Amino acid sequence: AAYIDAYLSEMHIQACFQGEGSPVAALGSEFSRQESVLKEETTKATEAFIEKLILLSDKKLTYADAFFLASALVGALQLARSLQHQADVTTYLANTKQHLFTIFSL
Fold first, then answer.
1. Cα–Cα distance, 47 to 51 (Å, whole number)
2. pLDDT recorded at residue 84
3. Spatial separation of the C-alpha atoms in residues 18 and 20, rounded to whole Å
4. Are 100 and 4 in contact (CB under 8 A)?
5. pLDDT surpasses 90 at 64
6. What does pTM read for this prediction?
7. Considering Cα of 10, then 75, then 21, then 8, what sign does the dihedral take?
């Protein structure tokens, strides 16, 4: 729960604008366009992110559940970064967190 809360925080969004934060969220849409050598590295980064979620759940998440959670986290962060109004960002992130907490019983 703490990881979801931190990942979908306004502070994390600001870190992404400063070149910090999640590389998967920042560059994920570009991964498929890379040459094969870079695709290997981007695959490793994505898989490491999913494995991190499994470990943070004390191995309660299956790989499929962790993949779903990773998709929701990355997608929510990317979409929130595109919103112009801070109130929308705050609401969107809070709603997404609540849904994820409910889905994963956190």
1. 6
2. 80
3. 6
4. yes
5. yes
6. 0.82
7. positive
Burial grade of 88 (CB within 10 A; 0-12, 13-18, 19 or more): exposed
> What is the reported pLDDT for 56?
93
Distance, in Å, from the CA atom of 77 to the CA atom of 46, rounded to the nearest integer, reads 15
HEC sequence for the chain: CHHHHHHCCHHHHHHHHCCCCCHHHHHHHHHHHCCHHHHHHHHHHHHHHHHHHHHHCCCCCCHHHHHHHHHHHHHHHHHHHCCCCHHHHHHHHHHHHHHHHHHCCC
